[in-house]
Amino acid sequence: MGDELIVEPTRIDDRGFTDGSAHRSHLAKAYNWYYNVNMFSRTGDLYDTQQMLLYPLFYTGFMMDDYFFDNNDFAATQVVFSSASSKTAISTAFLCHNRGLHTVGLTSAGNVEFTKSLGMYDEVFSYEEIDKISLAPSNYCDFSGNRHITFEVHERLNENLKYSMMCGGTQFNESVAGIRASDSAKSAQDASSLDIEKGNLKGPKPEFLFAPTQIAKRTTEWGREGLHNRVDEKWLLFIDIAVDWMKLEDFNDEASILKLYDDVYGGKIDPKAGYVCRMGS
Questions:
Q1: Which is more confidently placed, 35 or 249?
Q2: Do 110 and 202 fall into the same domain?
Q3: How far is the CA of 161 from the CAs of 103, 150, 170, 244, in angstroms?
Q4: How many domains does the chain contain in total?
Q5: What is the pLDDT of residues 115-126, one digit of tens each?
Q6: Residues 155 and 262 occupy one common structural domain
Q7: How many CB atoms lie within 10 A of CB 27?
Q8: pLDDT tens for residues 34-88?
Q9: Strand ranges across the sheet with 9-13
Q10: Across residues 206-235, what is the average pLDDT?
Q11: Which of 102, 168, 207, 256 could pair with 251 in a Cys bridge, judged by C-beta atoms 3.0 to 4.6 Å apart?
Q12: Which domain holds residue 276?
């Protein structure tokens, strides 16, 4: 963390700019784009903080939902989410639910009630209740990265599982993305070829979705402005709900930020919380 960021603005317009720094040129364009918060329809301290915390995650969720839509949902009518209380999973579920798909959240027992309260999941089960998932044609969004959960979901849905998407690694110590923490994108891609549980995984092979690839596809098809407008339309619906359930917490000194880091790493966090850390302010 630092108190300043040095960038080389390029492609400047009313929405923001792209960082053209040479040391970031190898990254996907989506990772170098900076928004002007004044371009959003909701502004002010509350909304600006919510947008800082949630918009990048929502954008990722939009591309995941759009990838399903772009592939006719792989003929599925139901989407199952692990780590359903995580904010990217919530974003994706919100969009899938609004399109009429049946959404099922899987989360730890302690987060079940919170996840139910969001209203974005038609059903919520703890990880001990995977056998309660309906055997409808399903897609799986794995935000946990936990190989054992993936195995159980595949075992439960079997031939009813149409597509298995690897989205993240919230349960880092059990995560296939933990193989090479310094290169999470490559780790997740490598992990998709692992023989989970000795290769006895039923259903389709899990595939890692790299959101910038879908962003690039839609930018070509819709244009940059067209993509932003479509995302922003859905974002406005989401943020007006998020301001009601997300609790903002500020951390302003080294000791509290380090403790928060340990809590996040150890999974000791409140799913309702949005943490804002500032050094020296």
A1: 249
A2: yes
A3: 14, 12, 22, 34
A4: 2
A5: 999 999 999 999
A6: no
A7: 13
A8: 888 777 766 666 778 888 899 989 999 999 999 999 999 999 999 999 999 999 9
A9: 9-13, 16-19, 33-35
A10: 90
A11: 256
A12: 248-281
